[in-house]
Write a structure and sequence with these properties.
Elements lengths: L3 E6 L3 H11 L6 E7 L3 H7 L8 E3 L2 H5 L6 E4 L5 H11 L3 E4 L7 H14 L3 E3 L7 H12 L5 E8 L6 H4 L21 H11 L4 E8 L8 E9 L5 E7 L7 E7 L2 E6 L2 E7 L3 H7 L9 E5 L8 H15 L10 H17 L3 E2 L4 H13 L5
Parallel strand pairs: 1-2, 1-4, 2-3, 4-5, 5-6, 7-10
Antiparallel strand pairs: 7-11, 8-9, 8-15, 9-10, 11-12, 12-13, 13-14
Pfam families: GFO_IDH_MocA, GFO_IDH_MocA_C3
Protein name: Oxidoreductase
GO molecular function, one term: nucleotide binding
Length: 371
């Protein structure tokens, strides 16, 4: 059986974790053949669990030009994702990119254009799309049986981080090194799921508190109000400072409510459409009956390895991707909109003004301080 030869660019936490799993033969269609990292200590560490015959490179460019790979996984700091992906596309290599796709949408738009021109497979590491609960929520919401969305609320505050975490790297939690805080680092998966399940909002008003709970220059506490094209509304709340944290996604629709919390998906289903009931009922304080049930959400929850397997099968057999790379711009635009709204103190409509966002980001980069 033909195998896909993959190289990993960036051997930090995620890159090294992928390497350890792939070298153990977790995915039969994939052969890990090369790794690269600018930090020679990381490369040396990787040699303790990878074969000596591997390609080891101190630059991504060397790995891309080595001829040892058919595809690459990009697991570097955020700003480098589009640049490295474009280089790989130009060499005819398929690309699987860690989240986020980049730091600002103007950068990622070029990335997407080059992906289309190249004709290679481009995939995003949105591993939470493999979670059966979120897949079931998307099916129920977009299937129409519960009617239109009226409201969505996501409180996702179980991203607790200490000051030691932020102090562990000079690039962490800086505008110049990371391009943001909780929105760009911890929450890209949640923001992707929000738009994947509910669709993109039409406008956002956000409040991003920078260095509220930690000694950092980027946001560690966010509350955002969303409006969607059909008039439904939403609230997205996140922080890296709550103990204990909460992870509750609640979607209210015309025919009931979905609640995802504590590893369980609960459906509160109305016997009648609320919109019909509201105007046809002759009583002022009555409610239609509600049936509460735990929704079975079974299936493969293969996370990162599931995305990599899907990537390999798309290249080798033409099967659909779990997360097409070009979709990465949607969640990034949503987080960019939250930042921009907070920076200028106004409601931001979609599509956002990409030039204004980049202008505001560059102002913050110019005064950014590496630790």
């Amino acid at each position: 059986m033909k195998k896909l030869r993959i190289g990993i660019i960036g051997m930090g936490n995620m890159g090294s974790d992928h390497a350890k799993k792939l070298i153990n033969g977790t995915i039969t269609e994939v052969e890990l053949t090369a790794v690269s990292d600018m930090d020679e200590m990381r490369l040396t560490a990787s040699k303790t669990y990878l074969p000596e015959t591997f390609g080891y490179f101190t630059s991504a460019e060397e790995l891309i030009d080595s001829g040892l790979c058919d595809a690459v996984i990009i697991a570097t700091p955020h700003y480098d994702h589009p640049r490295l992906a474009i280089q790989a596309f130009s060499r005819g290599l398929h690309v699987l990119c860690e989240k986020p796709a980049g730091v600002y949408t103007k950068q990622v738009r070029e990335m997407n254009e080059k992906a289309q021109e190249s004709g290679v497979v481009f995939c995003m590491m949105f591993n939470q799309r493999t979670n059966p609960m979120y897949r079931k929520m998307r099916e129920l919401v977009q299937g129409g049986e519960l009617g239109a969305i009226k409201r969505v609320n996501w409180i996702i505050t179980d991203w607790y981080r200490t000051q030691a975490y932020y102090d562990s790297g000079s690039w962490r939690a800086t505008w110049a090194g990371e391009g943001g805080g909780v929105l760009i680092n911890q929450c890209p998966h949640n923001i992707d799921l929000l738009q994947w399940i509910c669709g993109m909002p039409s406008k956002v008003r956000a409040f991003c508190h920078e260095g509220k709970w930690h000694d950092i220059e980027v946001e560690d506490d966010v509350t955002a109000y969303l409006e969607f094209p059909n008039g439904s509304t939403g609230v997205f709340v996140t922080t890296t400072a709550d103990l204990p944290g909460t992870n509750r996604l609640e979607i209210t629709l015309e025919m009931g409510k979905l609640v995802c919390e504590h590893g369980k998906l609960t459906l509160h289903k109305l016997s009648q459409n609320e919109r019909d009931y509201c105007f046809k009922s002759k009583e002022g304080f009555t409610n239609p009956s509600v049936e509460v049930s735990v929704v079975p959400a079974e299936g493969d929850n293969s996370q990162h390895m599931g995305i990599i397997a899907s990537f390999a099968k798309a290249i080798l057999h033409g099967t659909p991707l779990i997360a097409d790379g070009e979709e990465g711009i949607h969640s990034l635009m949503l987080s960019n909109a939250m930042h921009l709204s907070s920076w200028i103190g106004e409601t931001v409509e979609f599509p956002i003004d990409e030039d204004l966002y980049l202008y505001e980001l560059k102002k913050r980069i110019s005064s950014s301080k590496r630790k």
